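Tokens for chain A. Residues wanted.
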């Protein structure tokens, strides 16, 4: 068979597959029944850009997704100036694991099974490390009993200010325990990871039981160029707590932009105190920084948005994928 004719037939075959995928995606209907609250519905397919939409069980609507093929040429051009590091995993792998998986007690039982899909790019001009993944990361968390399929949009670390940022979408699958004792171990570990977490805090705000759950909040303000904590008599007034009973949505907008969150029922992880010896050792302290005039919306399951309007620092920023929960 002539080579040109073979290529033409191959292209026609690929075009037929693409049309079939697009037609199937366009006609596929799924009925989702979810527990009360908000969710990010994420649609992904190899070779196509990931699409996501926020959904709530309060809304009855039909959603349509149109997925565009990834522009590989543009992606190649965008990272060409930074230069891919050929031995990227050997040079940056341990650092990436610390910043992405974390350094908690659970992290040693958490591993990436397909690390070869990671591509590392370093820009000398920007003094920045960027990490991309050609396929979803396959993460096994033996501490919490999860297999996680994580679609990594991007990971960046700015060496100038030592700030790491990553975005992506996790899909959790609970592992089948080999024994009853292993199942109990995972259940206990998940509860421990939940206690004092961002999810735990947001649910306690929504349910107005922060004190009962072990949380306190304080305003963090500058006095004589020094950070000072102001104790609050009424947490909910300080947060400007409002609940819309028709939508079952809570909105908060603190009078101060920086909010200290204390969890008194558990002490920080010993590894955290080793790395941060000046921080409190009797309770977990985290910091929420709000953009001026921006409200935070919290739904029944603890989902909060817009997440880009709030920055998390201190203890919560230390816990990463090794402590992530599928709840």
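Reply:
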């Amino acid at each position: 068979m002539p080579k040109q004719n073979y290529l033409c037939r191959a292209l026609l075959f690929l075009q037929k597959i693409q049309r079939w995928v697009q037609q199937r995606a366009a006609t596929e209907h799924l009925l989702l029944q979810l527990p009360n609250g908000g969710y990010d519905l994420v649609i992904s397919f190899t070779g196509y850009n990931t699409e996501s939409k926020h959904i709530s069980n309060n809304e009855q609507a039909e959603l349509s997704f149109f997925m565009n093929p990834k522009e590989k040429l543009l992606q190649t051009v965008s990272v060409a100036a930074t230069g891919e590091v050929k031995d990227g995993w050997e040079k940056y792998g341990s650092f990436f694991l610390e910043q992405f998986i974390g350094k908690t007690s659970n992290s040693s039982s958490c591993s990436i099974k397909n690390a070869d899909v990671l591509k590392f790019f370093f820009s000398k001009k920007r003094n920045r490390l960027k990490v991309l993944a050609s396929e979803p990361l396959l993460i096994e968390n033996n501490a919490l009993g999860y297999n996680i399929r994580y679609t990594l949009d991007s990971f960046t670390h700015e060496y100038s200010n030592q700030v790491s940022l990553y975005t992506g979408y996790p899909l959790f699958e609970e592992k089948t325990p080999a024994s009853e004792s292993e199942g109990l171990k995972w259940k206990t570990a998940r509860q421990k990871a939940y206690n004092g977490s961002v999810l735990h805090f947001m649910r306690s705000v929504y349910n107005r039981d922060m004190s009962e759950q072990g949380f306190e909040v304080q305003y963090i303000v500058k006095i004589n160029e020094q950070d000072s904590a102001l104790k609050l008599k009424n947490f909910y007034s300080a947060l400007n707590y409002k609940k819309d009973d028709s939508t079952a949505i809570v909105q908060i907008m603190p009078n101060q932009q920086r909010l200290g969150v204390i969890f008194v029922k558990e002490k920080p992880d010993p590894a955290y105190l080793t790395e941060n010896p000046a921080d409190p050792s009797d309770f977990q302290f985290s910091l929420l920084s709000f953009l001026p005039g921006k409200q935070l919306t919290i739904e029944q399951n603890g989902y909060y948005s817009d997440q880009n309007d709030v920055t998390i620092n201190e203890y919560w920023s230390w816990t990463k994928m090794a402590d992530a929960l599928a709840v």
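The chain has a mean pLDDT of 85. The first strand starts at residue 38 and ends at 43.
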